[in-house]
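Check out a protein:
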Amino acid sequence: MQEQDEFQETKDIQIVAYEAKYQSAFKSLNVEWISQYFEMEEADYKALDNTEEHILNKGGKVFVALYEGEPVGVCALIKMNDSVYDFELAKMAVSPKAQGKKIGWLLGQQAVRTAKELGASWLYLEGNTLLKASINLYYKLGFREIKERSSPYKRVNIQMELALK
């Protein structure tokens, strides 16, 4: 019975492509989780204040999870200028009131699927091991830990990659 309830929950969630009307949700959901555990940094403001310029116009994508029509989760695929990695999975945030509904999993699956459709070979992400649920999600999506690369964020203490081909 519990599996059926979980299916019902995910059936009510819709993953949609970013539109300008979701800009405030993209920013507020990210500010909410970052501020809860860390502090906002310059690179956060760049991506969150200028989403079209810093993500979309450079070939990236942003996904929004809607629960009963309300944006409750977001995730970005940021095009990387890198010799190995095609996109960074970044800016994933789910509202505390919507956690436990598999929204992060659905957003992550959509990002991986889209990266494959765009011909990507490798995905990259940065995180912090303090956020155990997020790290578990990344492993579940197939990511594996790699040795440190440079990061613009002070909070990053783990980096991961996912081979898509």
User: Anything to note?
Assistant: The beta strands are 13-17, 61-67, 70-79, 87-94, 122-127, 144-146, 158-163. The chain has one domain: 2-119. The CA atoms of residues 40 and 85 lie 25 Å apart.
